Amino acid sequence: MRVAYLILAHQLPEQLVRLVRRLNSPSALFLIHINRRSDDAIYRTARAGLAELENVVFLRRHRLYWGGFGHVRATIEGLDELHGRSAQFDYVALLTGQDYPIKPVSVIERTLAESGGASFMAYDRLPGGWPDGMDRITHWHLRRVGVPRGWHLRLPIRRRFPQGLVPYGGSSYWWLSREAVDYVRRFIFEQPGFYRFFKHVDVPDEIFFHTILMNSPLRDSVVNDELRYVDWTRNPMPAIFGAGDLELLRRSPKLLARKFDSTYDAEILDLIDSELLR
Fold first, then answer.
1. Rounded to an integer, what distance in angstroms lies between the CA atom of residue 166 and that of residue 219?
2. Can you list the alpha helix ranges (DSSP code H) found in the chain?
3. Residue 55 lies in a domain
4. Of 54, 124, 126, 202, which has fewest CB within 10 angstroms of its CB?
5. What CATH number is given to the structural domain containing 221?
6. 131: number of CA atoms within 13 Å, CB side?
7. Domain limits at 206?
8. Rg (CA), the chain
9. C-alpha distances in angstroms, 255 versus 45, 132, 177, 187?
10. 154-187: per-residue pLDDT in tens?
11. How many domains, the chain?
C-alpha cells in the first residue's frame, strides 16, 4: 500500500521530523509544506533533519493565514506535485505537523488496503450539521494578507453557489484514494469558476474538497470518518494531548490523533512510541 503523506506545518520542526520518521515505510512518500510566515529556521531545521530521506519532498512555500484560501492552494499544489513527478501512490493523507500515529504503520497500510478503495473524510451536508453557517459561502469574504488574523471582512452582498452543486463541509484533513485525487484534480481543471469562487469563502478548506467529492460519482465510496482522533471537549480546542491521555488514545480505533505539542508535553510521544507503536 503506497501512501503519500501531504503535511502542512508551521512550527515544531523536530516534532515534524519525528512524525515523518514514525510514518516512514519503503512505500511511503512525503510532501511537506512549511508556512512561508514561519521563521526560516523552522524550514532549515526540518530539511536538515530529513535530508537523508530520498522520499521526502519540500514544496514551494506560501503564506498561509487561518480562514483563508492558502490552505486549499497549498494542498492542490501538493497534489499537482505528485502528478508532475508521476509518483506511484494509492492514497494521499492530508496531515498537519501536529498529527501523530496511534497505530503502527503496518496497521495504517492494512486498513487502507482492506478498504476496497474507499476514501475517508468527515463531512456533513450544508446547511446543518457541522460546520454550519451558510453565510460562509453565500457572502463574499475578504482577508488581507500580511496583517493579523483578525482582519476579515464579510460583505453583505450575497452570491450564488457555483454550478448548482450542494455544499458539504467537515474536517480539513482526509485520506483520499488515487481515484478520488485524480477526480479532484480533473474537476478543478474543468471547472475553474469553482476554484475562483472559493477564494472568497470563509475557511474554505473545510468545504472545498468535500463539496467536489460529495457531488461526484465517487460519493458512495467516501466513508464519513477522517480516521483521526481529535478532542473538541477541552480548552483550548482542539485539546493538546499529554501523558495522561495515553489510555484514551489506546482505546481509540483511529489511525492518527491530533493535537500534540512537544513543548507542552513531549512524554506522550515517547509513550505512544513505546506502548502503541511497538
1. 12
2. 13-23, 40-49, 70-84, 105-113, 135-138, 178-190, 192-197, 208-214, 246-251, 267-271
3. yes
4. 54
5. 3.90.550
6. 18
7. 3-231
8. 18
9. 27, 27, 16, 29
10. 656 678 887 789 999 999 999 999 999 999 999 9
11. 1
